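user: can you give me the structure for this one chain? tokens are fine.
assistant: on it. calling the predictor now.
[tool input]
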Amino acid sequence: MNHPTQPHPGRFRLFRPILAGATLRERLVGSLGALIGVCLTGWLCSLSVGAGASLPLIVAPVGASAVLLFAVPASPLAQPWPIVGGNTISALVGVAVARWVHEPALAIGLAVGLAIAVMSLTRCLHPPGGAAALTAVIGGPAVAASGFLFPLVPVGLNSVLLVILGVAFHRLSRRSYPHTAAPAPANVHGTLDPPPQLRVGFRDEDVDAALAAAQETFDIDRDDLALLLREVELQALVRQHATLRCSDIMSRDVVHVGTDDAVGTARSLLLDHNIRTLPVVDGEGRLAGTVGLRDIVHADGPVSAVMAQAATASADTPALSLLPRLTDGRSHAVVITDAAMHVVGMITQTDLLVALARLRPSSA
């Protein structure tokens, strides 16, 4: 019996997306940002230097900078200093090489090579900088006549305007730019111990050793890489125990307090029931926040004045996905709610610890 020929899994791998996490929506947003950013950069430059200027209003490397800025805004190569510094410094290197090296074949290679070296030393490595250096060498009579003004106008001006427009666009589209890595777990208790998340699993020195062993340069911030690896560990744990839901381990008889109740009432409930967190509900029984002894130790008045934002989850949420919130040193409980935000249960650190102990395979 003949079977249809299946495509070899590696046959079309060169045509697969190469950016981890890329989605169609992200690409469309990036395309729109580049369209707006490049158009406005050219228009603003025309207002600044005049439409009749001998130099171009916008240089080609800015198009490549726009790809990085709008398509991969988390890349270390797409941050403001690499864009502005990388393009401007590289153009400056190109102008200097063109002035003192008159052999074209040598000048073009020297300009790009020196641009990479200088960008690396000044911590502004930016791939379009190589094109900026090359443009300064082969840009023609207008660029040559401009001399050392060319790195500033139009290259530097283009780059600054593009970054400003990029910051505005990403803010409007609710994307984080300039990119900052999520802060590493910190000890919130004022002691010298590392936070619980960093006492087990891999450490920062393990990430450094792995990068050194790979002998590769990756387009990702080191702190972002460490954060991603910790998230991979969590997702693998959640996947392995996905059948354990919040509804399986939550407390259902939840003691709570109203928003209009006095702080003294909350204090009494916490002490009488020997618990650390109370859900706070409004007049319609919907969750409004939480309150703990730390919040009310020196407080008076209504509970609504001192309550904190609640950590929440649904009953169908995988229980182990609560690990980050219950080990951050701040949250002692997660309130389980229904779609209308009514309290249906609560999971404390103790509940999750007991569940983890039962999931641990017994030693032979």
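assistant: here you go. The two ends are 48 Å apart (CA to CA). The beta strands are 257-258, 277-281, 287-292, 312-313, 333-337, 343-348.
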